Amino acid sequence: MQGRKGLGCSLSLLFGIGMVLFMAYIFGFSIKGTDEYACAMRQVRGSDLVEREVGTPIEPGVFAITYSRETGGAQASATFATSISGPLGRGKIRVDSYRAPVGAYLLVQFKGNEDWVDVYSGSYPCR
Predict the structure, then answer these.
(1) 33 to each of 29, 30, 86, 113, 116, how far by Cα in Å?
(2) What is the pTM (predicted TM-score) of this model?
(3) In this structure, are residues 126 and 105 in contact, taking their beta carbons and an 8 Å threshold?
């Protein structure tokens, strides 16, 4: 009997670890493979303000925290944040995007040493 109980605990522990890793992927890494992430990073890397604060090359953080992500048909929306760094310092970016046939926008904000500032705010520039 003791062997079965130990096996049950081991399986539960493995399942728990698996769920933690799965959730870490969903909320910490999955957004990095999207068009929205790539477009936001293009805006950040093309920003004189961000370049002055962190220097170049600008590198994104390991994790990108996904707050929301929806896709369906020709519509997609995403809200996420990540850290960035360069040779002169570090900062954070947060992004809100929406794409649909009837309209699209992108908002990219940066926080370095000061408060949040818009890096890009307008129609979706990456098509």
Answers:
(1) 8, 6, 21, 28, 25
(2) 0.78
(3) no
